[in-house]
Task: structure prediction
Amino acid sequence: MILQSIFILYATTQQPQVCPSKQVWQCSGLIIAAPDNFNPNLEFPPPKAAPQPVTPPRLTPKPSKPPVTEEKPIVPSVTNSPPRLTLEADRIAAQRAWKYFERNSNPQTGLVNSSDNIPWTTWWDQGSAILGIHAAYQLGLLPKDVFQQRINSLLRTLETLPLPTTALPNKAYSTHTAQMRQLNNTPDPKGISGWSALDMARFLVALHIMRSHYPEYSEEINRIVARWNLSKLVKDGWLNGAITAAKGGITEVQEGRLGYEQYAAQSLKLWNIQAENALNNPPIKPVQVDGITLQVDKRNFKNSGATNYLTNDPYLLWGLELGLSDAIKPQVQNLLKVQAQRFQRTGILTAVNEDSLDRPPYFLYYSVFANDESWQAVNTRGKAYPQLRFISTKAGFSWFALMPNEPYTKRLRDSVQNLVNKNQGYLSGRYENPKLGVNASVDVNTNAIILESLLYQARGRRPLVFYSDSQMNLKKSGAKSQKNATPKL
Result:
């Protein structure tokens, strides 16, 4: 995952490394990783003046149909024709999002900057980058030879990627040299930044989609992944990451909260890595937000050291890339419903998310619910920034792709269609406070996920992981047989 001007540090405290409880998350003295472990801790340069979004003539959507929230989405059968964007607004959006890749890709390494013009990245962001390039190629934005050049450069880099003694990719790397970096973008020759199970899971989703859609890369991708000690990503059935220890070296930690945790666990299954507790036994409780029931993680900042962000991002990626299970659909539908209801109640368009910002603290998790409070925008230390609540561009595109017949998602998509810098790509969003205007941060996740959402639409709302209808049917039959083992979220 990324931060704008991503110079960040982990907090380190003197804490026990052995948890006496069988439920690791209950040990409040143990560092428990947040979804990205990031703790901004350095001074940042003052933000540049926000560029004004481009405002070409707005394309009016067709009248919306009645809501279909209670209906199961229908996935049309797939033909042999390539995916096509049929609306001019979608073609414009795809071209705008691709601008980011044109100016932030390194042709030697094949890596893509996490944030505009900063030669630094994480594996969450490279997962986004691969899927963005895949979507752009499928949508006809770049010719086959250019696509192949990009992927070949990346795979050559991964073949010789320097690894720490953990035999897992370090948390961060330079996009220019492919050398290990710390989270404050300083050299990390020993790779003591650790690893993120969540970041690796997203990267592995992207590699799996590449090997399944482009069999010519399958052998090389499998050989690359075989270098990595993926067994370290799971411990006792839970996602397992590592952070820098107080006296050097690394400390392993449980990683992930409800939403992120299950998205990652489902992703790891594509590589036959099982995180059964993360997938099926998360400690959850129901809460009421504006009268709507949602499931949240019991592990919050107070009792675990990490915030239980209930935000859009993991559920939207889950839907676009893997396909939502029947068990999770009620949670996703209520997540959209509560945001639409807030708009009806306050007049504030609401699309929460994790996103980079163009001003301090440069990255926030805006959540429907977090740390026992609703509508919280907090950093990874749990500090709230209510004045910086924002509407997320990538959330607006993704919600519309997943539920195009909902009037509220149409409104969201229309509101973010033109939040763009014509030279850089899509901006992260717009602040809810009209005096603050646009959130002019530009990053790979926003632009890649926009491209993913457009490909999902062009494929007839078929999740990106599936290459054929037979794969989808196999998943559906498997889901029925596993129904009793799936948590009721």
